[in-house]
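Reposting from the mailing list since nobody answered there.

I have sequence plus structure tokens for a pair of proteins and want to know whether others read the tokens the same way I do. The first protein:
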Amino acid sequence: MSPNETVVRRSKTFFRSREGDTSQKPLLVLEDVYKYFRRDIPTLRSVNLEVQRGEFVFVTGPSGAGKSTLLQLVYRQHTIDGGRLLFSGRDISRLTERSIPFLRRNLGIVFQDFKIVPHWTIFENVSVALEILGTPAKLVRARVSETLDRVGLAGRGNERVSHLSGGEQQRVAIARAIVTEPALLLADEPTGNLDPALAIDILTLFEEINESGTTVIFATHDHSLLTTSPHRLIVIDDGRLIEASQGLRVWSARTQMSA
């Protein structure tokens, strides 16, 4: 087995090696999690959350409430300062720096500002995630083609992303995030730079990805999206997590975002 093949295999099994023990358990668990950027004021405080495999979860709240920080802890941009954070049964707060890339190969991440390379083609932006894993070129071409079809960009791989609209650029970013078939897709305000009609289109795309089996956590402060789809809603206010029941979903979002 080549070194590249070893990397691919390890990246796929690193967080699934105990799948027989964890398949019926939550994919993501936060237990009494704290995060401080200032010593005396926690950005997140005593956060407890379970996300089941295959769920679609909205995370909302006012700007600065801690939505992005929550996602950043999951993909280990930052480390927690208290509690435990489990992904697929592993305590990722205890991962070594060497192990973090293997965590991220099991996650897809989509940002508000796309974070794609403007002078690259669509194909180049999407394929880079597979190339880093050492995926054979033939499989890269097939996987990218399939993924572009899923996000509505079939046959457009040779176009420069700098020539695309904002909505199309976000579709490229989504394609890059899902081309590795991650177990969990994190979206940090992915419609923040889009007009309302495009925002609904992008939300619908995330829902289609979720229906295929991918767990989705979608952070947004856009109230119109929250009222569009009846997904589970988590509200973060002043660093605290509030689980909104189905009957109080809209009320909670309005209350927290106007606070």
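The second protein, same order (residues first, tokens after):
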Amino acid sequence: MQTFRRYVYSILEEHEGGFLGKIINGVLIVLIISNVLVVIGESEKEFVHDYHNVLMLFEYVSLAIFAVEYILRVWVAPEKVSSSKETLFKQRLRYMLTPMAIVDLLAIMPMLLGFFFSDNLFMLRMARLIRGFKITRYSRSMSLLISVLKREAGTLFSTFFILGVVIVLAATGIYLVEGDVQAENFGSIPKALWWSTITLTTIGYGDVVPITGFGRFLGGLISIVGITMAALPAGVLASGFSSELNRRRDMYRYYVARLLDDGEIKLSDMRKLFQKRNELGISKSDAQLIMYELKQEVKISSEVACPHCHSKLHIAHPVGSIKILK
């Protein structure tokens, strides 16, 4: 049973399991995307009317598959976090409280609630869009984005806080300048917040514009400030992506270097490397390049004579010449 549990874990969490694993994961990905498209299509009343029976059958099938998937993920949870100090129940309970497990549960809740409430509730049907977040399990880019957001959460919060303060200041300024002239649009700071938000984010719909000379000057100044402010979150994310990618490559390089201590990668090590590469989201080309570089560092072994005792020495070094200093 433990062997079977490990096999199921390798399919669901490590995206392995050979040909069968590829089929199962492929079906889950297609099902997730199809569910999102169906929810979008259900906003058209004619589409729902014409294909009501087909949509209900699709929803029941999706619910069954996602429910089985959730139960299996909870069942195999001890394979990921194995601890002799905790019972299997506690390990599974701890997994059920993780963000992705909660997303899996929320993916099946709207349909389950539909059995007790009217399924005609629009918000209840739209809640099924949560299933789209399940695709993050299969997307390395989404996984990387989530990691960056977690690591840069403090910096992003500071950035958006500063942006919020500037938006309020801009709304206050335009209220003082244009409030008496355009009371409908700038008669209060809350009314002016729409204009300041749209201007500072460099969108500029043009539905509300200042008409006084000083108001236009202030609007132009706020627009210039907005270019800088809008670029701050993008800069933080770009820097975060670069740092996270370098960190993951360094972690993978260190892991490969440990396996290359004896100068070669055994067949038993290949599975470990594949799992580590998937865990870190390292592309196949990057992994091959790291492997090549590390092999070159330990590949050459030269036999030289010690300049003092003249005994033979074997020195492992990168490709190129070596120099013995007397």
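Reply #1 (J.P.):
I read it the same way you do. The domain at 139-299 is CATH 1.10.287.70 (Helix Hairpins).
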